[in-house]
Amino acid sequence: MSPRKNRRAVSGKPPQGGGGGWAQRTEDGPDGEWIVRSIAGAAATKAYRCPGCDQEIPPGVPHVVAWPADERGGADDRRHWHRPCWQARARRAPRVQRSRNAPRY
Prior knowledge:
Layout: E1 22-29, E2 32-39, E3 48-49, E4 56-57, E5 63-68, E6 79-81, H1 83-87
Region (Disordered): 1-31
Protein name: ATP/GTP-binding protein
């Protein structure tokens, strides 16, 4: 038996979503318009810090990369999020880092 060949879409164009295990889309939210890229686990090769929960996203874990759509800053504005953290960003308050003896008000 011969090995299976990769097949192209019927129109002759490659499938949508780009290559490398990611798909990109634009999302509108209460905090503005964002370009969001879903990263597959196989394409996640580095560890990142999620701004939503301040936990590490280890290599091999599928996640989301998002940056503001109005600013084409690119790599400087991109943030890697856990998918649930990205979906819950409007319901969460920003995490404030305080020193041990700082007042809580």
